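Q: Hi! First time doing this. I have a protein sequence and I read that you can turn it into a structure. Is that right? Here it is:
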Amino acid sequence: MSSKRRRSWLRLIESNGPSFTTHELIKEAGIALQTFYRYFPSKDHLLLAVIENVIDESCAAFEAQARTLVDPVERLRYYVAATVEGLGATGNGPSFITSEHFRLQTLHPAEVAQATQHYTDLLVAEIRAAVAAGRVRTEDAEYSAWLITQLTMAVFHHYDCAGLDEPADRIADRLWGFCIGALGGAGTALASSSPPVGAAKGARTRKGGPS
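A: Yes, that's right. Below is the predicted 3D structure, encoded as structure tokens:
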């Protein structure tokens, strides 16, 4: 299924939420019903495909932007920070990716893991390069990358639902400080006067992320 059709479905889903109908989907894509079911056994499988497509496109953009960074630690920092800084985009309420993530995780854990794997793979490559350069320490780059992915997703989903209580770039700095510290590298998280609580007084946001 073409990325163009998946983007058209993404617009429909973001507009209508997960309550969209199969008829609306095939009308938006301009395909027959039997063609739709050839690719997707259910609406959930379509949601998973759209989420994976969003993450793949984000990762491709991150990778292109990071090519100018020579240091693998700086590239790793960029991948973590850019994800969270995406919360700075304007919008209303949580994105459909956030709202659907935990439901899909419960029903289709293997497929959700596959959807986020591209992001984890980006982290693995930079962690290995940083270990080889003596910049960080870890006995298992794959597991470290997975843990950072899970933490980044958790932070993103929290603020996507609760809203920002401080600038997104400051949240990204805190997250990166924790991650680089866990890897035994040099980096300091900004001091926090209090943990995030409930819904923020500031602007609410909506943006895609590493589901």
